[in-house]
Amino acid sequence: MAEDRYIIHGGIRLEGQVAVSGGKNAAVAIIPAALLGSSASVIENLPDIEDVHVLVEMLRYLGAKVEFDGSVMRIDPTTVDKYNPPAYLAQRMRASYYLAPVLLGIFMRAEVPMPGGCNIGTRQIDQTVKGMSTLGAQVDTLGGVINVKSDKLIGSEVYLDCPSVGATINTVLTAVSAVGTTTIYNAAKEPHVVDLANFLNSMGARVMGAGTSIIRVRGGRPLRGSNYTIIPDQIETGTLMIAAAATGGDVIITGAIPTHMEALSAKLLEMGVYIREEDDLIHVRSNGRLRGISLKTQGYPGFPTDLQQPMTALLSICSGSSLVTENIFNSRFKYVAELERMGARIRVIENTAIIEGVDHLVGTSICATDLRAGAAMIVAGLIGEGTTEITNIGHIERGYERIDKKLRSLGAMIERVTK
Ligand code: EPZ
Known about the structure:
Elements: E1 4-9, E2 15-19, H1 24-33, E3 41-44, H2 50-61, E4 65-68, E5 73-76, H3 87-90, H4 99-107, E6 109-113, H5 126-134, E7 138-140, E8 145-149, E9 157-159, H6 165-175, E10 181-185, H7 191-202, E11 206-208, E12 214-218, E13 227-229, H8 234-246, E14 250-254, H9 262-271, E15 274-278, E16 281-285, E17 294-296, H10 305-315, E18 321-325, H11 336-341, E19 345-349, E20 352-356, E21 365-367, H12 371-383, E22 387-391, H13 394-397, H14 403-409, E23 413-418
Parallel strand pairs: 2-14, 3-13, 9-10, 17-18, 21-22
Antiparallel strand pairs: 1-22, 1-23, 3-5, 4-5, 6-8, 7-8, 10-12, 11-12, 14-16, 15-16, 18-20, 19-20
Ligand EPZ binds next to α1, α5, α6, α10 and α12.
């Protein structure tokens, strides 16, 4: 069977300028939200990635008219006539369950198969269920389907037990269709939550406080279609910054939002990397061996769990020892075994990886066990001596737009091959 792979000849310093694509996690929330409009929306700066393609298929299945040229998407929701996306599409990504509150708002019922997404630990949805039911929906998840209906959605107060990104987004998406005001306490503050709120507000919704831990939504539809440009991808930006630092590179990343990167920039500075920020540009340069550090993942503005994996790949060749503590997902260190195959010395005890920096990694055949693990494999391949073969790259292409091409433009020797 044909298997697509990346082949990387490592040890080359990345140099040059590269532009960041639109944010995956913003895109996958904003595209379903466009169905809440009474007319078509045009969304710009979308990433051309597998998750977005799957969403397009799902929206078309539901009856929407969707045109997508790889960056700009026009979504006409006026012909949507189904409330039950199929499992074969929904299970291909995590964000498919954002359709549940959206379709609930349109039809007062929805049947959305339990979402898929990366296998990085328990990914509960109890807080989503709590948000929707507090606003007046009956929700059950029997048989692997989120089955939700309501006679009337009414604004209320929702306290989230943890600042879950998914639950915050699902509760906001429910609240815009509810009558009255909803207040969400302990909300996630991630940039993509803010971007979704800005998009909904551009459609005529009133979502206030996004980016803080208390979000207020004054509900009430109809919303109108809107023209909107989504934010750059925070995690792609970070992955490129890490790749530049790891190769002793000199890279200017454009189209980024430097303030979204503060947690990573602070850590890279601590390690000895030079960073300059200017408007939408981040310049990363490094020379010589970097210092090991300690970090703990947290919700925004803390260090993002989605950069934990590529950062661990970089730390594996830094001097001294490093500690990486994963606080968000309970099984996000599976990829460490792949780094060890390249010579990394990492011990995982509970939710902490203890990394003893080695002089170099050596290329071999490794597997991308999930999306950001794939990013870690790419960083390892760029560092590694000799040739690294990365299999299972479907995971990577779910979330990174032509990462091979972008890295090639910076001088990397990376090829995408189909056996
Ligand atoms: C989003 O996942 C992102 N996905 C993830 O990005 C990201 O890693 C994560 O947020 C954290 O930032 C999308 O935006 C599509 P959570 P999500 O709900 O919403 C627990 C990537 O690589 N929890 O904030 O699924 C849960 O078990 C992906 O781009 C509950 O206990 O994350 C987990 O341990 C991977 N009950 C933690 O909270 C709930 O009801 C964080 O989950 C919900 C979550």
